[in-house]
Design a protein that fits this description.
The chain is an alpha+beta fold. The chain has a single domain, classed as Sandwich (Immunoglobulin-like), CATH 2.60.40.790. The chain contains one helix and seven strands. The strands form two sheets. A four-stranded antiparallel β-sheet has the order 1-2-7-6, with no helix packed on it. Strands 3-4-5 form a three-stranded antiparallel β-sheet, with no helix packed on it. The radius of gyration is 20 Å and the shape is elongated.
Length: about 150
């Protein structure tokens, strides 16, 4: 894999926070009978998971955004920083129904990644299909490995 300035994501922090939030909310419900169907869903920030794959030719991002549409997401690229942001809204569908469990995250999110100087920023391509955002960042020709013949 080529040397780049991408930063590794440590999912342990988000996983633990989610577990503690659910445990605390369940305790409130069990002990004091507090039940709010939308507790924390509109104000809590969340982070979609991202896979980053690098090859000799490009860097590819795959961002899981289930339940979202492409119009809910914004991608910006400025000063070699790729930023992905958006909002997944909680919409209560029917009156008179009560949620027993809400495990999906809702609200605003923002992820930023510092890109190496070898990316051709004018050739970035993005598409959205089946709840996954794909961002393709081709590399400059000069940065691609090449074989040098010996004379």
């Amino acid at each position: 894999m080529a040397n780049s300035s991408l930063t590794r994501w440590a999912p342990e922090t988000d996983v633990l926070r989610g577990r503690y939030d659910r445990m605390f909310n369940q305790m409130l419900h069990d002990i004091w009978g507090i039940q709010t169907p939308t507790e924390g869903v509109t104000s809590r920030a969340w982070s979609p998971v991202v896979d980053i794959k690098e090859s000799d030719d490009a860097i590819d991002f795959h961002v899981d955004l289930p339940g979202m549409k492409k119009d809910d997401v914004e991608i910006t690229l400025e000063n070699s920083v790729l930023s992905i942001s958006g909002e997944r809204k909680f919409e209560q569908e029917a009156k008179g129904e009560a949620y027993h469990r809400l495990e999906r995250s809702y609200g605003s999110f923002s992820r930023s990644f510092t890109l190496p100087a070898t990316v051709r920023t004018e050739k970035v391509d993005a598409n959205f299909a089946d709840g996954v955002l794909h961002i393709h960042l081709p590399k400059m020709e000069e940065s691609k490995p090449r074989k040098i013949s010996i004379r």
